[in-house]
């Protein structure tokens, strides 16, 4: 419940990354460093008892990524006002509140330990349905109502799994949700290799390995490789005051030899 301090130490492995992204979002949602308007992240950050220092220096990438996902979701809802949103591996994301609590069915999907923590620190909402399931066990798809278009978000998710699983999930979403769409982020190969060797954020925390990588150029080919995907478009991070390295990424996006060296966010449109 909000107002209580909740122990966050039950989350381990990939599930613990939701605490890492919350830490980064909350850090850059406050004071002079603010790059995202996320009061709910600040609220739940203060409600969780956890040694946040183990994550080391905060990084604004998670906050800017959230804004990028928000923009894509908002764009889809503008074209499809009655759409259903499916947030895969949602963790402690607060997208629903940043978007102004839209009156759309919202399905939040993650593993049981994560969903337990989420239910204890975030308020109940009539529009949100929580499903304690793996995003890759596509049984959750039978819970999504038919008749309206579906927009699937996979924020900070696919890179932690193997390529076959990630590609199969994308293909299944395209097949099951005609006329819908999907947004996911991916990392370049060099980052993937680095995490497999081990990236320590501090003496007490090492980022879980990220075996799946996909470059910007590779993502653009999905429309010709996966049945049901009619377009694959990159979404760049928004500009933010003082975030020069992300402005550099925007410049690199126009340089073919360099753009594949940075992370990318891809929006897919499904046929139908």
How would you describe this protein?
InterPro entries: Ppm1/Ppm2/Tcmp (IPR007213), SAM-dependent_MTases_sf (IPR029063), TcmP-like (IPR016874). With 272 residues, this protein is of the alpha/beta class. It has one domain (6-270): 3-Layer(aba) Sandwich (Rossmann fold). 36% of the residues lie in helices and 18% in strands. The chain contains eleven helices and eleven strands. Helix 1 (17-27) crosses helix 2 and helix 1 packs across helix 3.
Labels describing this entry:
272 residues; alpha/beta; Rossmann fold; seven-stranded mixed sheet; two-stranded parallel ribbon; SAM-dependent_MTases_sf
Give a short synopsis of this structure.
It contains eleven helices and eleven strands. The chain is α/β, with parallel strands linked by helices and 272 residues long.
Set out the fold topology.
Elements: E1 6-7, H1 17-27, H2 39-47, E2 48-49, H3 61-79, E3 84-88, H4 95-98, E4 106-110, H5 112-121, E5 128-132, E6 150-154, H6 163-176, E7 181-186, H7 189-197, E8 199-202, E9 205-207, H8 216-219, H9 222-225, E10 229-234, H10 244-252, H11 256-259, E11 264-270
Parallel strand pairs: 1-2, 3-4, 3-6, 4-5, 6-7
Antiparallel strand pairs: 7-11, 8-9, 10-11
